[in-house]
Amino acid sequence: MRRFISTAAFFLLIASASATPLIPTTEGTTWRYNATDETDGSTTPAGSQVCYRIGGTEPFGGKELLKLETVVDDISVKTELIAVDQSGIRSFARTDNGGNMTGFSSPQIIVPGELKEGASWDCSEEIGDVRVQQHFTITGAEQVSVPGGTFQAFHLQSKQSTPISMVIDRWFVIGIGFVKEIATQRSPTGELLHRRTLELAKLPAPETRPNGSVPKLSVGVSSEPAGEFETEFSQTAASLYARWEGHDLRENAKVRALWIAEEVGHFAPPDYKIDEAAATANTPGARGSFTLSRPDKGWAPGKYRVEFYLDDTLVQTVKVTIK
Hints:
CATH class of the largest domain: Mainly Beta
Number of helices: 1
Shape: elongated
CATH topology of the largest domain: YmcC-like fold
Strand content: over 45%
Mean pLDDT: 84
Low-confidence stretches: 1-18
Distance between the termini: 17 Å
Oligomer: single chain
CATH architecture of the largest domain: Beta Barrel
């Protein structure tokens, strides 16, 4: 085990100056929308309040994915498990009408990693016993004004053929998310059945939990510097990246990651501290990554955890398995 420990070392990578993420990913981040409904030519305010919210993370298929919740009148009615990375925003699973989480045969693209006019893609998925088929197109960039501000946004259009005919127009802003959405349903003869419009009421931000606290760090572990979060890794993985993103951090806040081997058989005693590293957050929304390099003889199989500390206070723990 001494060889295993001595050859495993953290190398600090400051990532606070990296590219803007497609959307905020801090737990608790909430998008609140003003909703209106249109039928028979008349438009009225919707009777419900609609929100999207990052509800933390959840392991699925060996990955640690973000929980994107659709909230109506403070009740979560749908949850998607998504990844936000250089490949875009992708959905890996979604709850059906019975509340059961169903994984897709392949990830469904919500927003592609490269946004450009004319790009298109198709999605075909089954939620429970219902098959949904959609064709997506980026029609271009447009200026759009909503209560939350005026933005230059990419216009994404989705045409759904089954189970019902629907056209969904969305306006997406990098670093913010969807600022406007219009879902239109028409009869086979083209008559308007229903149209719902959502307009962002204010810029998204983490909202307080019931106990009044606001999460300060969003964290995860991956096998790539900007890859998806995962919970299971191979013994041959070249490096493991313990990544973090801050929200409203104080000036020069200290972020520290501690790598611990929980159960690795005869290689080390339980809860053995392998190594640790620290970084100073130079902005309130600083982001960073700590890298643990593979030992010469490979990782010891077993259970591990990474503890994330903010100013010496434990705020998040991520558990991983090496097979």
